[in-house]
């Protein structure tokens, strides 16, 4: 029997190949005090290491294979920008001068401070940006320490598939490996929202992360099987296991080919009910994936990445240019821009102060209303972008109509300013609310009367309703989309939208999970937004559904104290 190791599947697929173990040990960083007359030369040594790291990354960027989507270079560009950011270029210099310490130690001190700040962040996507800090710092540290870059270790055999196993893999290394017969990656660290995970999904590379001490269990050239569909790495597979997984690989390839045939087909149920399928995006490279699956547009554009890794927030013009570029790439497809959703624990936002419980503190629209100098430039940028294509504005974490009134007042202030400056914008720009706080869900009818659309953010809605941190391993088993309280809130929001005759979408993880597609259709949801990778599977299920026949089973499920068992029995839950 093969040995199975478990991890977090961040990019689906099955891979069979020989293991290549990358040994990236912990760097030994020493601290020592410099004599005063050595300070300037140490600063120069640090600056030279930064420049060498930039040259290395530019070289890697230029080596990206021509057949690779151009957007992949954005990951390396992110690391280049981080090397230019004052947090990594100037702060260590200040530490060298203040503490008279060596460059390696100053960089370590700054890395520790940045990692601590990212670890304190509530938003899971932003929290995983600590990985990028560590990747960039490690590159500079290796240069300072004159360590080998282990480029030979990163070479994957061209003649047979290799499954790379490592503590972590930087996006720049993954880009190079992807052109060298790479079958899959397995890492000890990382999460589903790390840049490496996002890149693996974009490149179609099966990936498993969070496998503790994997390098201790696997030998180089050992044949292993990665099943990234159920989060397992199989060691020492016997002939029968290999035969089984090769058959599954072939079946998955056939299924994928069949799914892609649906790209241009209508998203229409069997009984003729249209359902709109949008994609969520965070970075520009997500648009390539969106187009690949034929999404109807962007249902959620997270703008937080614009505010990351910098001392000061982006100004209005930088944001406007980014939104305009995104619209141009969408070529007429609608773009729903969510305003800034950061919390007070995120030190990357100037003026924010720490709070005891970031999840319940000054975050999202609360922060924006407290800091209008942060909010108004974004509102103006979104309004200006609306003159260039179909844009919708989405406000996160509203809890009361009073908050909405404040947002509308600021929005009118932004409109008035643009009118005076004779800058064009869409006066009928649709405004919507993210319904992700139980209070907002209960009062969804009040929001529906005042807005153009609603969007259900199931991730936070469930977290707040169930008082459960979905990232905390000790309680995340309680994070249940089928809790009766959660289902009643979702149904109430959908009904409120229908009564006010405005569209209601869902953009949380539940929207892209085929186990819940029939249930959501039965509830009346007609607009979904999800990661592009999930869209075709959801479309396939919609096309197989007869929605009118789901109403009676829905009534039984909503009355049941155990919706999970009832839903499986009635065929409302499950992808089969």
Account of the 3D structure:
The protein folds into 3 domains: 125 residues, 3-Layer(bba) Sandwich (Glucose Oxidase, domain 1); 109 residues, PtsI, HPr-binding domain (Enzyme I, Chain A, domain 2); 263 residues, Alpha-Beta Barrel (TIM Barrel). Helix content is 45%, strand content 13%. The protein is built from 24 helices and 16 strands. The longest helix has 24 residues. The chain starts with a strand and ends in a 6-residue tail after the last helix. About 3% of the residues have low confidence.
The number of helical elements comes to: 24
Domain count, please report it. Answer: 3
Number of strands: 16
* Average predicted confidence as pLDDT: 87
Task: Reconstruct the topology from this structure.
Blueprint: E1 3-6, E2 8-11, E3 14-21, H1 39-62, H2 73-84, H3 86-89, H4 91-99, H5 103-119, H6 124-127, H7 130-144, E4 162-166, H8 171-177, E5 182-187, H9 195-203, E6 207-209, H10 214-217, E7 223-227, E8 232-235, H11 239-260, E9 276-281, H12 286-292, E10 298-302, H13 316-330, E11 335-338, H14 365-370, H15 372-385, E12 391-395, H16 401-420, E13 431-435, H17 438-442, H18 444-448, E14 453-456, H19 458-466, H20 484-500, E15 504-506, H21 517-523, E16 527-530, H22 532-544, H23 551-559, H24 563-570
Parallel strand pairs: 3-4, 4-5, 5-6, 9-10, 9-16, 10-11, 11-12, 12-13, 13-14, 14-15, 15-16
Antiparallel strand pairs: 1-8, 2-6, 3-7, 7-8
Helix pairs in contact: 1-2, 1-7, 4-5, 5-7, 13-15, 15-16, 23-24
């Amino acid at each position: 029997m093969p040995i199975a190791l478990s991890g977090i599947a961040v990019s689906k697929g099955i891979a069979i190949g020989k293991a290549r173990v990358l040994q990236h040990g912990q760097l030994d960083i020493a601290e020592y005090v410099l004599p005063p007359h050595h300070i300037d030369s140490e600063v120069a040594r640090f600056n030279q290491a930064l420049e060498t790291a930039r040259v290395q990354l530019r070289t890697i960027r230029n080596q990206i294979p021509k057949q690779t989507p151009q957007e992949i270079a954005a990951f390396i560009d992110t690391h280049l920008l981080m090397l230019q950011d004052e947090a990594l270029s100037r702060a260590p210099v200040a530490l060298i001068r203040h503490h008279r310490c060596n460059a390696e130690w100053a960089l370590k001190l700054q890395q520790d401070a940045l990692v601590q700040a990212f670890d304190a962040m509530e938003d899971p996507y932003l929290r995983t940006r600590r990985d990028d800090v560590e990747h960039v710092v490690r590159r500079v540290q290796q240069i300072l320490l004159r360590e080998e870059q282990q480029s030979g270790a990163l070479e994957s055999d061209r003649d047979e598939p290799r499954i790379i196993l490592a503590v972590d893999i930087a996006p720049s290394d993954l880009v190079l490996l992807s052109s060298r017969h790479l079958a899959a990656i397995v890492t000890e660290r990382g999460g589903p929202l790390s840049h490496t995970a996002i890149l693996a999904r974009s490149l179609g590379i099966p990936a498993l992360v969070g496998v503790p001490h994997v390098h201790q269990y696997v030998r180089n050239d050992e044949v292993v099987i990665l099943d990234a569909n159920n989060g397992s790495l199989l060691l020492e597979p016997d002939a029968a296991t290999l035969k089984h997984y090769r058959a599954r690989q072939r079946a998955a390839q056939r299924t994928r080919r069949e799914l892609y045939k649906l790209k241009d087909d209508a998203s229409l149920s069997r009984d003729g009910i249209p359902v709109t399928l949008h994609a969520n995006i965070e970075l520009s490279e997500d648009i390539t994936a969106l187009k690949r699956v034929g999404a109807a547009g962007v249902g959620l554009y997270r703008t937080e990445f614009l505010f990351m890794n910098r001392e000061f927030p982006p100004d209005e013009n930088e944001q406007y240019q980014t939104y305009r570029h995104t619209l141009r790439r969408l070529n007429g497809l609608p773009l729903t821009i969510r305003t800034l959703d950061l919390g007070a624990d995120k030190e990357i936002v100037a003026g924010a102060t720490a709070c005891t419980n970031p999840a319940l503190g000054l975050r999202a629209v609360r922060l924006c209303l407290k800091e209008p100098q942060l909010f108004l430039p974004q509102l103006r940028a979104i309004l200006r972008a609306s003159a260039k294509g179909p844009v919708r504005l989405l406000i996160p974490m509203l809890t009361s109509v009073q908050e909405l009134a404040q947002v509308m007042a600021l929005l009118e202030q932004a409109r008035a300013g643009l009118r005076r400056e004779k800058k064009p914008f869409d006066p009928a720009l649709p405004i919507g609310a993210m319904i992700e706080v139980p209070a907002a869900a209960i009062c969804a009818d009040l929001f529906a009367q005042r807005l153009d659309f609603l969007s259900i953010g199931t991730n936070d809605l469930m977290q707040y309703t169930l008082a459960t941190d979905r990232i905390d391993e000790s309680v995340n088993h309680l994070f249940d989309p089928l809790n009766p309280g959660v289902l009643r809130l979702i149904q109430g929001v959908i009904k409120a939208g229908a009564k006010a005759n405005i569209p209601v979408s869902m953009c949380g993880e539940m929207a892209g999970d085929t186990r819940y597609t029939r249930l959501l259709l039965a509830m009346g949801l007609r607009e979904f937004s999800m990661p592009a990778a999930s869209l075709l599977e959801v479309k396939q299920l919609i096309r197989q559904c007869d929605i009118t026949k789901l109403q009676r089973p829905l009534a039984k499920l909503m009355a049941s104290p155990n919706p999970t068992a009832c839903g499986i029995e009635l065929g409302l839950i499950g992808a089969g």
